[in-house]
Amino acid sequence: MEQIERIKAMELYLDRASQAVIQLSAALDDYAVVQKALSELSAYYSSNEWKEDYAADEQNRLPKSLKRGVLSEDAIWNLLSDSRELNSRLLEMATELASH
After folding, report:
1. Structural contact between residues 52 and 71, judged by C-beta atoms closer than 8 angstroms
2. Do 71 and 54 contact (CB within 8 A), yes or no?
3. How many Å apart are CA 27 and CA 21, to the nearest integer?
4. pLDDT tens digits for 26-78?
5. pTM for this one?
6. Which DSSP string do the residues of 55-95 spell out, in sequence order?
7. CA 72, chain centre distance (Å)
8. To 10 degrees, the CA torsion angle through 35, 37, 40, 46?
């Protein structure tokens, strides 16, 4: 019975790891595609244009129906911070995996 249990356990590992690899690969593909967008957001957030857009929003000069999450003081900052943290995690994982 020990052999059967071992094979069942290894099958579970195989299924879980296969699914994780597929999901991570797709997520990394998506993340690679949005790198330009992250760069553009970073440049916008530190620009005079963002300050002008923010001021216009504060003065109610923008349509109420306009989606403007980019004008919140935290949305872009948090996204860029999360992206930097993710990049650090990826680098740490790559370094750790390369040493094995």
Report:
1. no
2. yes
3. 10
4. 999 999 999 999 999 999 999 999 999 999 999 999 999 999 999 998 999 99
5. 0.80
6. HHHHTT-S-TTS--GGGSTTHHHHHHHHHHHHHHHHHHHHH
7. 19
8. -90
